[in-house]
Amino acid sequence: MPPLAPCDACPKPSITWLRYSGQHLCAAHLQESVERRVKKELKKQGGLPPGRIGVAYSGGKDSTTVLRLLHDVAGDRPDVEIVALTVDEGIAGYRPVALEVATKVTAQLGIRHEVRRVKDFAGVTMDEVHALDSDLGQCSFCGVFRRRLMNDFANEVGAARLVTGHNLDDTAQTILMNLCSADLEKLAKLGPHDVTKPGLVPRLTPLRVIPETEVYLYALTKGFTWHDEECPYSVNAQRAVYRDVLYKLEEARPGTRHALLRTFEELKPLLPDALARDGMRECVRCGEPSSGTLCKACQFRERIAAATA
Length: 309
Ligand code: SF4
Ligand SMILES: [Zn+2]
Ligand SMILES: [Zn+2]
Fold this sequence. Notes:
By secondary structure, the chain is of the alpha/beta class. The protein is about 50% helix and about 10% strand.
């Protein structure tokens, strides 16, 4: 094996080569670089306002990283309180282990941690949904319920912002998915949000500029504890196709993920104000702001009720 190239910033051996920028970095300089980019992105997204900040915390590497980075940032800010939320989708063998890890980590950090269950909201677990007719598109149910529970939670605790751990790969996949399905409305709603509609807690996504492998190396070299399993249903998720395509694109043309993010940034001001349009109506069932008579979560609850009747 050829010797590792030295770090571009010091004489130590590098642990990674960032193909899109050509940089070789050792562990300490990768950590420094990740922290610098996340702080810069957080500032660009408006920073942390005083008050409570909700963090969507699954126990995985991305949400663990964002939680710990925010915990560090908030350490210098007595006016900011971090609150972590885990949604329990009801997936046996996967979520209970992650919950155990999440409980331990938040206890160690002294962060308030709350859990909301899909079963309490939808009347069924995601395992039960997956056991139903496979035409239901189960992962979209899970995503809608999760977003709803996160937002309800953020409102309940009076959070000024809701932070998610989406990394650059997740973000580029979502942008590509929405472009490929011509869903400009969904694209327009993608966080971060600087303005929002009543009832929707604005999102911050400070990890969206960090590629997944760098989040992984950051978490690993910092010695974080996280839950490293994939959801057993993730192979069926539509996202898996986009993950593979983007992986190949990035191999062939390093920088593709960053370019997709830039495309979104340039497009966003030109997209219709989908959030404002949503806020013009209320769901007749639950009162949440909605673009139609029934919000997506209530539509899905109805479909589940019909399928289980
Ligand atoms: S893979 Fe599907 S079922 Fe599993 S957590 Fe993600 S959205 Fe939910
Ligand atoms: Zn170095
Ligand atoms: Zn509703």
